[in-house]
Specification:
Number of domains: 2
Enzyme class: transferase
Largest sheet: 12 strands, mixed
Pathway: Glycolipid biosynthesis; lipid IV(A) biosynthesis; lipid IV(A) from (3R)-3-hydroxytetradecanoyl-[acyl-carrier-protein] and UDP-N-acetyl-alpha-D-glucosamine: step 6/6
Keywords: ATP-binding, Kinase, Lipid A biosynthesis, Lipid biosynthesis, Lipid metabolism, Membrane, Nucleotide-binding, Transferase, Transmembrane, Transmembrane helix
Number of strands: 12
Strand order of the largest sheet: 3-4-2-5-1-6-7-8-12-11-9-10
Family: Belongs to the LpxK family.
InterPro entries: LpxK, P-loop_NTPase
Amino acid sequence: MLESIWYKRSILTWILWPLSCLFAFVVKQRRKRYMLQPQQSYRSPVAVIIVGNISVGGNGKTPVVLALCEFLKANGYNPGIVSRGYGGNAKGPLEVTPQTPASLSGDEPLLLRLRSEVPVIVCADRSKAARFLIEQHPQSDVIIADDGMQHYPLARDIEICVVDAKRQFGNGFCLPAGPLREPLSRLDSVTRIVTNGGTIENYPSDVMTLIPTQWHRVLDGKAIEESSAPRNGIAVAGIGHPERFYHTLQNQGISLNECIDVGDHGQLSHAQIKQYQNQQVLMTEKDALKYRNKAGEHWYYLCVSAQLPDDFYQFILQRLESFYATRK
């Protein structure tokens, strides 16, 4: 219900506004405390890149993390990833493997491990995850924290804030009246802003474009030839902004018979899986991980890759070179 008011201003917005003011004050004071007492944060011996956002919901962090991993590996670095593991039930630091169930690690960390082929550690405490990563993989020289913008116990060297260019910042209010985890003023202190799908006013940004690459079968991950790619089907989405996925399919000329939104990190019920078992079902790569052992023969997922400006990558490279130059 609350999400329905986050992108407009209504009577309920103003009723909740005092709570939003309190929320904004608390998060600002919390960050200030860590800034004034840096010893309270874990300072990793290697560079830490935060990829996060200041609003709730899907903004496109995962493609940015994957693009960074690919770029860093191509330039001689050995990145590792730490993540909260949202949607999973792992209790302590857990290293994700290709065989780890999504129910344990969370779907995003499993996708990151499969696509990046770098170490991925999940733990609600990202500082513990970072320590565990360095202990288990001492060759790692860059830590990428997925969705760690507000996790101040982990000190950071680069902060990348990802923003959905369409939804942007909603009504501009913090939770619960709006979608913001931190006030808009937080953007003034991040290192770089990446916008997903366009530009935003008042803030310079690097525009990311998501490029659809190839269809795969959910059952076995087998790639589908372009000539056999689906042209219609039922779209299932368990992501923060399902409309973007639906539009991507429609822009490819795919006719959607039905669109099923199961909520961010959600999944089809057993009854729905049985109902659609013999139908042609289309989903994101992240969602597909939850159905690997129960998908129908004609269930497919679409892979996408992030396209970012060269200037963004060169900036990251320069920052890392400066970081290690001061530690020689």
